Amino acid sequence: xxxxxxxxxxxxxxxxxxxxxxxxxxxxxxxxxxxxxxxxxxxxxxxxxxxxxxxxxxxxxxxxxxxxxxxxxxxxxxxxxxxxxxxxxxxxxxxxxxxxxxxxxxxxxxxxxxxxxxxxxxxxxxxxxxxxxxxxxxxxxxxxxxxxxxxxxxxxxxxxxxxxxxxxxxxxxxxxxxxxxxxxxxxxxxxxxxxxxxxxxxxxxxxxxxxxxxxxxxxxxxxxxxxxxxxxxxxxxxxxxxxxxxxxxxxxxxxxxxxxxxxxxxxxxxxxxxxxxxxxxxxxxxxxxxxxxxxxxxxxxxxxxxxxxxxxxxxxxxxxxxxxxxxxxxxxxxxxxxxxxxxxxxxxxxxxxxxxxxxxxxxxxxxxxxxxxxxxxxxxxxxxxxxxxxxxxxxxxxxxxxxxxxxxxxxxxxxxxxxxxxxxxxxxxxxxxxxxxxxxxxxxxxxxxxxxxxxxxxxxxxxxxxxxxxxxxxxxxxxxxxxxxxxxxxxxxx
Length: 494
Prior knowledge:
The strands form 5 sheets. Strands 5-4-3-6-18 form a 5-stranded parallel β-sheet, sandwiched between helices. A 5-stranded parallel β-sheet has the order 8-16-9-10-11. Strands 12, 13, 14 and 15 form a 4-stranded antiparallel β-sheet that branches. The chain contains 18 helices and 18 strands. Helix content is about 35%, strand content about 15%. With about 500 residues, it is α/β, with parallel strands linked by helices. The protein has 3 domains: about 5-140, Orthogonal Bundle (Fumarate Reductase Iron-sulfur Protein, Chain B, domain 2); about 155-250 and about 420-490, FAD/NAD(P)-binding domain (3-Layer(bba) Sandwich); about 255-420, FAD/NAD(P)-binding domain (3-Layer(bba) Sandwich), CATH 3.50.50.60.
């Protein structure tokens, strides 16, 4: 695939981005397109390895290795190298319903498993994928393709996030009538409200694809929470099958002294209200502003990074991101071998922007909050922290232990909790009396997806727990296949 000697001749090159001072002025995406000739050179770096690991989609040491939706990466790299863009798009769509989403928000475990990455910078797989789909939209190659025939079967999907959308797209292709229920005012779930606009443009990217799905026959019903606005029993009576794609939306809390103070919010509430304000062209009643505030973000993952970038665009006074884990090494550690996901230090977009504004990475590693301090109005004014070290307890488990003498008091008028999620909301699950696993997720075997109730399936984070968007796409497609088999007795869905 690609040019046989391309990886020896060409260096890895990424597209340029708008400089932080420029991109912080708005909420627009900031990646600049790369010329076709440069992309062809990057495609040429794909080295025709005997066993490509980039599209294996396995889990090693608890993290994804290779593409979870098994994109045919060496093949589309070769097609881009040869200038066959339309063919590359067709190859990409064989495994991926929404490359414009994964190309923007996926952390690219494919690149972490690239064979070239053993001793050289890996192929720029993510950027090539992103470029293929964007060219497809620009050239008008992506148009609604409604199914040639309808089966007469009806499927209800609860939740319009990544898993729900991919399940809807696949079941609609199979000819079933698909209705997607969403409790928010717009469809898209995490893609609409959980990821900031500068990472994934809502009107130019998300709504564009939703409109295609609608033109193909998928129905979206918003402002409707199943179990509250509409009884789930109504769905069981009116539909031949149901797929739960409600996500893992119960945020992990931090029940320390002062948690009740005003100004302490879950990160997703902050991000959701901000995106809604952008789309509605005005802040709503739930809008949370970081303007002129000292912001402390507790949590070091992608959501924490999104809070950093959003706070900077609000013109915060300062921003600190507390990370309880140690700072990663600059290169792979010996206990983190290829093709595992490389746990190495990097500046993501939010930290890069903070460094440009304040002169340093905002993350404070091996640090945890001990309590929140309030003013006489009941508002948070500071976060008390301490450095920690990880030590084994009497059970042999590594636990954080405070280091005496490292206490600090950090000013904060806004605290954002970005520590992940602990499972799906349980109201609907209890109403259905579904079996749940030990972590509270819907119990349904991977690859089969059927719950303890026949005809009711579960996919995505509500089944597997908090995970990558690309795993949700994998599960949505898998649940659609299982549902089609249940409805028809056979299935041709991939």
